[in-house]
Design goal:
Blueprint lengths: L17 H11 L4 H22 L2 H15 L4 E14 L11 E9 L6 E8 L3 H8 L8 E7 L12 E5 L3 E8 L7 E10 L2 E2 L8 E2 L1 E14 L10 E2 H4 L1
Antiparallel strand pairs: 1-10, 2-7, 3-6, 3-10, 4-5, 4-7, 8-9, 10-11
Helix pairs in contact: 2-3
């Protein structure tokens, strides 16, 4: 018995030209690089989401965090000023001086604070002329006293770190304090003042005692572009 063998014959077709035409069309309509960049970034995000879905919880979150961290802009650090203080204009009636103005504030100094600036000014109209006539008897009614205390010093009966007293006009003056090292802790900044403020029917006879005092410290501040708006930041000491 003989068996006949069968050999498969290859089918041949004429080469189509449609593929070449399509290739030419794609070449003549290339997408701009910016569009391709946007599509690439979108595809990366889709891949991350898909991978996170397919992988177990912690692994998926870790992958997302690593990729997002690589896109995050590095934080920037710059010096930022903090200012504390008061300004006050007295208003009184008759011959009685206004009620004393008394304020205090605790200011935290950390290791980043190495210098501070206090600006002070006081205005007591006619004080020099009055003192020339009747002496300094009005000093207990027209004065400004400002003091800065290191942590715990006032409570222990020590002396102020800095102080100033004015009973007559005192031009605006800056005081630069600190030699590179300032004690860490809560510093006490306080003011006590008293004065007159009279509004007379004749403007030339009106006068008002006033003062302003401000303390400024500078500390390094960190800005994260993803969190902070323009001008916002977090002090470096708060991040440690």
């Amino acid at each position: 018995m003989t068996t006949k063998g069968y050999r498969a014959k290859a089918l041949t077709f004429p080469m189509s030209t449609e593929r070449h035409q399509t290739s030419s069309v794609l070449k003549s309509h290339r997408l701009p690089p910016s569009f391709m960049g946007g599509r690439t970034k979108t595809l990366i995000v889709l891949v991350i989401l898909l991978t996170s879905t397919l992988t177990s919880g912690c692994l998926g979150l870790a992958l997302q965090r690593e990729v997002m961290e690589s896109w995050r802009e590095p934080p920037s650090t710059f010096p930022k000023e903090e200012t504390f203080g008061w300004d006050h204009t007295f208003e009184s009636s008759g011959v009685e001086a206004a009620e004393p103005f008394e304020r205090e504030e605790l200011i935290l100094f950390d290791e980043s604070v190495t210098e501070l600036i206090i600006t002070f000014r006081a205005q007591f109209p006619w004080s020099s002329q009055i003192e020339d006539v009747i002496g300094n008897e009005t000093n207990e009614f027209r004065y400004v006293e400002v003091r800065l205390w290191e942590p715990g010093v006032k409570e222990s009966g020590g002396d102020p770190f800095w102080e100033v007293r004015a009973t007559k006009d005192y031009p605006q003056t800056p005081f630069v304090l600190g030699d590179g090292e300032l004690m860490q802790g809560n510093w006490l900044f306080e003011v006590e003042a008293r004065g007159y403020g009279i509004t007379a029917p004749i403007e030339q006879l009106s006068f008002h005692d006033s003062f302003d005092v401000y303390l400024t410290i500078t500390r390094p501040c960190v800005q994260f572009a993803e969190v902070h708006g323009e001008g916002e930041c977090t002090f470096l000491s708060d991040l440690e």
